[in-house]
Amino acid sequence: MRYFPLFLDLDDRKAVVIGGNEEALRKVRLLLKTQARINVIAAALHDELLSYLKEGRIAWAAKSFSPGLLDDAALVYSAEESLHDEVSAAARSRGIPVNTIDDAALSTFITPSIVDRDPVVVAIGTEGTSPVLGMGLRSKIEALLPQALGSLAVAASHLRDRVADTVPQGNRRRSFWQRYFFGSIRQSFLAGDAKTYSRELEAALIDDSSPSVGRVSLVGAGPGDPELLTLKAQRKLQEADVIVYDRLIGPGILELARRDAVRIPVGKKPFEPSPRQSDINAILIREAKAGRHVVRLKGGDPYVFGRGGEEQAALIAEGIAVDIVPGITAALGCAASIGLPVTQRGQNRSITLLTGASEDGLAQHDWAALAKPGQAFAIYMGVNAAGDISAQLLDAGIDHRTPVTIVENGTLANERVMMCSIGSLWETLALNGVEGPAIIYVGLKPAQTSADILPFPARDDTGPQILRAVS
Ligand code: SAH
User: Fold this and answer.
1) In the beta sheet, which residues pair with residue 296?
2) Given the CA of residue 248, which atom of ligand 1 is nearest to it?
3) Pick from 215, 341, 408, 433: CA 20 to 30 A from residue 169's CA?
4) Of these residues, 208, 225, 241, 246, which one is catalytic?
5) Are both 161 and 231 inside the same structural domain?
6) Range of the domain at 85
7) What atom of ligand 1 comes closest to residue 303's alpha carbon?
């Protein structure tokens, strides 16, 4: 290690930035996170610097550089290449750390990449060897640290005296803070659940051995591609003790989970009876009551045909804290990823999300309303009932040429996209042997025609019109 990492106190200290350009601006933005007195030395200032000047957040110390301007400074940045030599010499002779931007030889310090959850700050450096690696690490850490982590640290600092008075030093106190920063207390703090937070906090202050109350996060995993997870979903997966997941959740997503989290599959398996909702609820309740942080991982969004509401109600009835992490629902995610706008000017002003299946067979809808011209809808769980659905729509007078797009295994490596008209929906599904989860869009057209997505409208309704079927 050539460069020694440390955190410099800039409270009310003078920090000098030489230059009024983009580079200088970037350093000023960083320094503005501190309470430093920022002195800029430049012939002219970037507009954003001028606005900081107007707001009194920086001072324009001089138009041209002279060494005396560095007196008493805590650090110096030079963003003016022609001045690098002079600035570096003046700073060194005064013992002031200096960074001449893009010139390591003249610098005595480097600025790390920063993940800022003030007062919690992570600094990442590669000693200039691999900035892209540094940036990549930064975005990984960004994704892992919740936005409210800083507030958690501040809240902890307000608790210090109380903890010192009530919790004996040593193991007991360490385990209190462990639970505070990494266990159930943190969970309820980050979920913004003030009631559970204070209940758990009080319990932990009195008796750390009492089992903590677990909680359940209902997390939407998106349509399948792991990169379509939200940052919050990813963090929840990293924090989970137990993950209860549907079988539709691909292995790529589970790979992002904490390694030692227990995994419990509860989804449907072909040719096996699917677990009953009451059994799933029982698992969630059992695990949470054992004090675990349970992630109930669901495809798409937990509230869209995902029985998220029912699970939530069952947990709340047992007094278990629940939070919900939204996900990209299949109808929206699959459409966007194949270039099929779900609303488009001149085409449709609304889109209905509907299910093709219900507990007792074909779901009932207002087919006459859906059959009207200009309607657009996305059918979930519609493959088995597709023949009945198209028959209902045709009976209700839908134009048999109404365009249909089918996306099977959307956003996954084995995705297939098929296009046809409503009159040939059933044959298209049968001919292509569609078996995976699929969304059926009725009444939508692609944003533009390209080699990938072939043009509408389908010719006519003489038979299946498979415009694109990738296998
Ligand atoms: N909560 C989920 C829906 C669960 S119902 C969501 O918000 O997306 C299951 C149905 O979702 C499947 O029958 C299928 O219609 C649809 N679906 C889920 N993942 C899909 C995918 N990757 N491609 C196409 N359809 C998908």
Assistant:
1) 218, 244
2) 19
3) 215
4) 246
5) no
6) 14-111
7) 1
